[in-house]
Design a protein that fits this description.
The chain is an all-alpha fold. Helix content is 73%, strand content 3%. Its main location: nucleus.
Length: 845
């Protein structure tokens, strides 16, 4: 079908255009945005020369200049006709040339383009006013406000011009025309203020009448009334307020209107009218919307009313609030507290009794003490009110009795209630009743607070025998309470019975379980110090140290010895510190031992000698940094953490891993020294060679030992703690070997120094000859290569032997080392290169 239709129409088919592929390769010169901005900024900073000043000397030049400028302005307008700025510049230039007709023509043309532009109308009118063309300006304003009646700026400029020209009638006429459009509130106030400036109060009142009808808000009615009040029209102001109340009615009542009305009457000293207004408003406005109204009413009553009226207003409102709260939640004890506090201050006794009875009737639903804590204070406040305010002692006693009956003492009790009841009986001079109450409390539900309160009461009454009996009962009830033991002993101390106090302390420290034993021992020691019994104090410290090795005990003991007068007090304190240092060696907490040594050092600095201070300083530990594995709560590894540890001098020998790095370093130095010795002793006698063999053998033994220690250190790295301090320690055995080698060398040099020097020269000559022979002959090179292969095989064999089990015998290692040394000497005698020997030694290492 498509081909048939195409043939019938006779139109040739179009070949689709092939899309051209654009070159999307980046340009050879790239320009960044930063470069563009920088160039633009640089061009801005370029200082352009100012245009040359043109001086017009005759009329032809002026006309030429005006023609050129007009052409420029017309071109700009032709380019962008809707841009008002070009029109304004053109008109202002014509105005500057005193061509007002031309300027008006420009403005008129601009108005034809954009007649709703307020700025254009304002500039047009300002030009006419500046050139004192008042009628032209009026015509412009009339046209503007006719076209744009909602443009308030035009109206304001118009009325301002008329007022400046003192055309009062014309200005009023403009205002009237403006008010017909019912503008915003502030422009009505402008009209009112205009009339007031010319003392036209009746006209202003008329404007207000129209204003409150156009904008019928409470605030505008209040402004109208204040206007009347300000001009001493009291009756008119009251009438305005009454009209406002009628206007809004009961459906749209606003507290602001009634507050303003009441304040107006208050200024007129009409307090009865004020109360009527407030009551009328409070009866009809909802409580939640009358907060300011109620506040103003309260302030007025405080100023001009009696107390009864004020309290009635406040109490009635708050009573209603609290009643609503307690009805919603009877167990809201905080609301009950506030309600009762209000009634106690302003209510009658019967009302307070009634509310208290209602409150205490709301017993907590569950017998858990945390729910009873707030509830029990209702009973306490009830009893205190009856005692202090109502002065009814029998009712107070009944309240306490009823409260004690309500509390489930088998599950929990409140010691405060028992003590308050007993104190009440004491105030009533009923000591037997008070003792009966406290005895009943201790018998039914003994508590520490009850015992302490009872004992304090008997102490105030100076009944010390009763106090002893109570302390005995107290200690039978709670023998682990150290505070009660201390107080009992202090009582006996005050009474002058030191033996009884000492016996109490002995009983106390013999208890199997104590809550604060350190406090008890300290009190016992202080007691003996006060009794000036140093020997007993020493015995107490000894007994205490048998139970605990705490560092503070040792420090306190030493300071006590230092405080006891005597010639050997420093020696005694030093002895205590030494004993403490020995005892704390097995302690895991190294910080405690450090604290002891620091305290010892401080005392030596104050009372010791330089020798004793140096002795303490030698005992001070080293602070090293270590790391250990960190594990999470699930037991997973969380990496490593660094920490500081303290290593004491006597502990370093027990930790060989601390010496590992230092020993490895010395082993390396020792190996280098041995190689140097080999070079020096190559030309020595056969007896010297035997000695060198022995030394090399010992060096080989040291190397095997270092390999074993390296394996041990590698295993140590996988443990939980690795020392990374890098401390260096001296090893006695290695130091001895090194000293013996040095002595041997010195003896050899003393025996035959000439032979030693000559042997060195011969060795150097043999090396030079060996190098020359290797360069000239290929036979020597082939032999050296075969020897290198042998050396490599032997080195591999030695590596396999060193990596085998650690149970290999030391004798085989000595034999290998001896063979290796002999081969090295043969190579040196045969003229081999020194570098080859160095390579072999390194490979062996």
């Amino acid at each position: 079908m498509a081909s048939t239709s195409g043939g019938a129409s006779g139109k040739p088919q179009r070949i689709p255009k092939v899309a051209k592929v654009k070159n999307k390769m980046p340009a050879p010169v790239q320009i960044t945005a930063e470069q563009l901005l920088r160039e633009a900024k640089e061009r801005e900073l370029e200082v352009l020369p100012p245009p040359p000043k043109q001086k017009i000397s005759d009329e032809d030049e002026l006309k030429e200049y005006q023609l050129r400028k007009r052409k420029e302005f017309e071109d700009n307008i032709r380019k962008n006709r809707g841009l008002i700025g070009n029109w304004l510049k053109y008109a202002q230039w014509e105005e500057s040339q005193k061509e007002l007709d031309r300027a008006r023509s420009v403005y008129e043309r601009a108005i034809d383009v954009e007649h709703r532009n307020i700025t254009l109308w304002l500039k047009y009118s300002e030009m006419e006013m500046k050139n004192r063309q008042v009628n032209h300006a009026r015509n412009v304003f009339d046209r503007a406000i006719t076209i744009l009646p909602r443009a308030n700026q035009l109206w304001l400029k118009y009325v301002y011009m008329e007022e400046m020209l003192v055309n009062i009638a014309g200005c009023r006429q403009v205002f009237e025309r403006w008010m017909e459009w019912e503008p915003e509130e502030q422009y009505w106030h402008q009209y009112v203020n205009f009339e007031l400036r010319f003392k036209e109060i009746d006209r202003a009142r008329t404007i207000y009448e129209r204003f409150v009808m156009v904008h019928p808000t409470v605030q505008n009615w209040i402004k109208y009334a204040r206007f009347e009040e300000r001009h001493t029209f009291t009756a008119s102001a009251r009438k305005v307020f009454e009209r406002a109340v009628e206007f809004f009615g009961e459906d749209h009542m606003d507290e602001k209107l009634y507050v303003a009305f009441a304040k107006f009457e208050e200024h007129q000293k009409e307090h009865d009218r004020v109360r009527v207004i407030y009551k009328y408003a409070l009866d009809r406005i909802p409580k939640q919307e009358a907060q300011d109204l109620f506040k103003s009413y309260t302030i007025h009553e405080k100023k001009y009313g009696d107390r009864a009226g004020i309290e009635n207003v406040i109490v009635s409102k708050r009573k209603f609030q609290y009643e609503e709260e307690v009805k919603a939640n009877p167990n809201n004890y905080d609301a009950w507290f506030d309600y009762l506090r209000l009634l106690e201050s302003d209510g009658t006794v019967d009302q307070v009794h009634e509310v208290y009875e209602r409150a205490i009737a709301n017993v907590p639903p569950t017998p858990e003490k945390r729910f009873w804590r707030r509830y029990i204070y209702l009973w306490i406040n009830y009893a205190l009110y009856e005692e202090l305010e109502a002065k009814d002692m029998e009712r107070t006693r009944m309240v306490y009795k009823a409260c004690l009956e309500v509390i489930p003492h088998k599950k929990f009790t409140f010691a405060k209630i028992w003590l308050l009841c007993a104190q009440f009986e004491v105030r009533q001079k009923n000591l037997a009743g008070a003792r009966r109450v406290l005895g009943n409390a201790i018998g039914r539900c003994p508590k520490d607070k009850l015992f302490k309160g009872y004992i304090e009461l008997e102490l105030q009454l100076r009944e010390f025998d009763r106090c002893r009996i109570l302390y005995e009962k107290f200690l039978e009830f709670g023998p682990e309470n150290c505070t009660s033991w201390i107080k009992f002993a202090e009582l006996e101390t005050i009474l002058g019975d030191a033996e009884r106090a000492r016996a109490i302390y002995e009983l106390a420290i013999s208890q199997p379980k104590l809550d604060m034993p350190e406090m008890l021992w300290k009190s016992y020691i202080d007691f003996e110090i006060e009794q000036e019994e140093p020997q007993r104090v020493r015995e107490l410290y000894g007994r205490l140290l048998e139970r605990t090795q705490h560092v503070k005990v040792w420090i306190s003991y030493a300071k006590f010895e230092l405080s006891v007068a005597g010639e050997d007090m420093a020696a005694r304190a030093r002895k205590i510190f030494e004993q403490g240092n020995r005892a704390l060696r097995s302690c895991e907490e190294k910080e405690e031992r450090l604290m002891l040594l620091e305290a010892w050092r401080d005392i030596e600095e104050e009372a010791g000698s330089a020798e004793s201070l140096d002795k303490v300083n030698k005992l001070m530990p080293k602070r090293v940094k270590k790391r250990r594995k960190v594990q999470t709560e699930d037991g997973m590894d969380a990496g490593w953490e660094e920490y500081y540890d303290y290593i004491f001098p006597e502990d370093e020998a027990n930790q060989p891993n601390l010496k590992l790095l230092a020993m490895a370093k010395r082993w390396k130095e020792q190996k280098e020294k041995v190689e140097d010795d080999d070079e020096e002793e190559e030309g020595s006698t056969s007896s010297d060679e035997d000695d060198d063999d022995d030394e090399k053998r010992s060096g080989g033994e040291g190397g095997a030992g270092m390999l074993a220690m390296a394996k041990q250190w590698k295993k140590q790295r996988n443990t939980d703690e690795i020392d990374i301090s890098g401390s260096e320690e001296e090893d006695g055995s290695e130091g001895g070997e090194e000293e013996s080698r040095k002595k041997t060398k010195q003896l050899r040099k003393q025996k035959d120094p000439d032979k030693d020097s000559s042997s060195k020269e011969e060795t150097r000559e043999r090396k030079k000859e060996g190098r020359a022979e290797r360069e000239d002959s290929s036979d020597s090179s082939s032999s050296s290569s075969s020897e290198d292969e042998d050396r490599q095989k032997k080195g591999k064999r030695r590596k396999r032997e060193s990596s085998s089990s650690s149970s290999s015998s030391s004798s085989s290692e000595e034999e290998d080392e001896t063979v290796r040394d002999k081969e090295r000497r043969k190579r040196i005698e045969g003229g081999e290169d020194e570098d080859a020997d160095t390579d072999i030694s390194d490979e062996d290492d």
